[in-house]
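Recall that a protein's primary structure is simply its ordered list of amino acids. Everything else, from secondary elements to tertiary packing, is in principle encoded there. The following example makes that idea concrete.
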Amino acid sequence: MTTYTPRRRFALFSLAFIWPLLGAATLAQAQGAAPPPQVTVVEVKAGKVPLTFEYAARVEASREVQVRAQVGGILLKRNFVEGAEVKAGDILFEIDPRRYEADVAKAKAQLQQAEAQLAQATRDAERYTRLAQSGSGTEKARDDALSAKELATASVAVAHADLNVAELNLGYTNVRAPISGVTSREELPEGSLIGTTGDSSLLTKITQLDPVYVIFNSSESEVAEVRALLEAQGIWERAGEVLSVKLTYGDGRVYAQPGVIDFASSGLDPETGTLRLRAVVPNPEHRLLPGQFLRAIVMGVVLNDAIVVPQAAVSQGPRGQFVYTVDSQGKAEARPVVLGRQVADGWIVTSGLKAGDKLITEGIIKVRPGAPVSIAAAAPGAAKP
């Protein structure tokens, strides 16, 4: 059994009593020496923020016409490659013209006959007028001659009209493209007997692909928001000039040519509560095809005096979103905020911040409300709109 002298027992007792006090003092010293967390802050500024509105969209041809025969006959020739691009005025089909050439020749002969009859009636009217004036002829004979001249004049006019119709029908034997665009397949092959009614007159279709229409629907609330913003700026009446439409493909690629909105339906769709909008988009290389689905991004709307905060600066708490700011004493303050639309640089804050506030953007995880913080650096522009 180990025995301790009185001096050694005193030393052990003193050590057991003092050791916890030393540990507590060391811990307190360590805690007191911990520096405040370093954070990055920016000064909140208000300014103009461009807004965008994105929608699912579908491409439509700006024009699609049916090419039909206006005269009947045998279809002699097709002068285009199916699916190729044609220009307005190009001769697409040729119909047997012989019957219509004969009609033109007949109409010309009838015109000559009518003109000859008019010349004879004119001479007769002049002769009977002289006879009536000299007393050698009757007034009735003169009146009959004048009436015959008028009838002959009308016959010449009719003959001219018949000739115009005959020449017009002859011209219709060359079926021309009414618009520029891309053709479909031919509906009837060469050698077919075609008519002027029903399916027998349909020869092909032409789709105009430059420009194209892009159709999309906007919700009632977004339409009202855009209108209110444009009216506040006094440019609602020029909305078609101010707003532009950017198109993106499904893989994120951006179509090079922007479009402009040229049409809005007069009312909301009763089933969806949306407003149909249409944009006209140049398509010189035919990269956009009817039926294609894209994303339409409407640009040109600007929100004035807006505050935007980075997404990293926003935290979620039991009572909603909040941000940390630094007060005049260098302490962190949790500030509840109301967020609006998300934009390229972050979130628009509609309530809870004002210009001049110092917003913490980095180091948030170490921050506690009411605790002092050390401002490490500023990030210019991080909280700018």
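The chain has three domains: 38-49+306-376, 52-62+209-302, 71-195. The helical segments are 6-33, 98-134, 139-172, 220-232, 239-242.
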